[in-house]
Amino acid sequence: MTADQTPQEKLLAMRASIDNFDAALIHILAERFRRTKEVGSLKAEHDLPPSDPVREQEQIARLRRLAEKSDLDPDFAEKFLEFVIREVIQHHKQARE
Amino acid sequence: MTADQTPQEKLLAMRASIDNFDAALIHILAERFRRTKEVGSLKAEHDLPPSDPVREQEQIARLRRLAEKSDLDPDFAEKFLEFVIREVIQHHKQARE
């Protein structure tokens, strides 16, 4: 962004960045779900328990710390992880059915 | 991962990848919110309309396409964007109050 840009030009430049971040988020989420699918298969194959509350608490605590350091609301980080984990559980259920 | 790993070792390796992806997601989300905060200030400063339904529909359509290409459920991509936008609107409201 430069000082001689109109507000509309500045807005377009900001939106271009947001679109790039969203594309990055989608691709990382896609890769994360590939990995949780592997975890689901491994757990089913070796009769490991499907959920692990201790692991989940550690994930929440870690993401809250990372969020604080990067000036993101830690409550949002926790809600975000819960949102993603809900989807993973949904995938595991669909895979079993 | 190698063939001679125990299931538990394989699980730990998969979880290490998931933790790396989560850290990446948190940092990109933090940066995305920095940008939407700038958008909020710019819109307030220049009396631009706070929401833009056409832009939002374009974002949804684009993310659904990106999700399909990367083998991610497009419905999840749409839900994810809605989840993030809800948070942005919440930020904008708090900023105005």
3D shape of chain A: elongated
If interface size is counted as residues with C-beta under 8 Å from the partner's C-beta, which chains form the largest one?
Answer: A-B, 46 and 46 residues
- The amount of helix of chain A comes to over 70%
Structural class category of chain A: mainly alpha
The number of distinct helices of chain A, counting runs of at least 4 residues, comes to 3
Rg of chain A, please? 18 Å
Describe this structure in words.
2 copies of one chain form a homodimer. With 97 residues, chain A is mostly helical. The first copy, chain A, folds into 2 domains: 1-48; 49-97, Chorismate Mutase Domain, subunit A (Up-down Bundle), CATH 1.20.59.10. Helix content of chain A is 81%, strand content 0%. Chain A has 3 helices and no strands. The first copy, chain A, has helices spanning 7-45, 53-69, 74-96. In chain A, helix 2 runs antiparallel to helix 3. The radius of gyration of chain A is 18 Å and the shape is elongated. The termini of chain A are far apart. At the A-B interface, helix 1, helix 2 and helix 3 of A face helix 1, helix 2 and helix 3 of B.
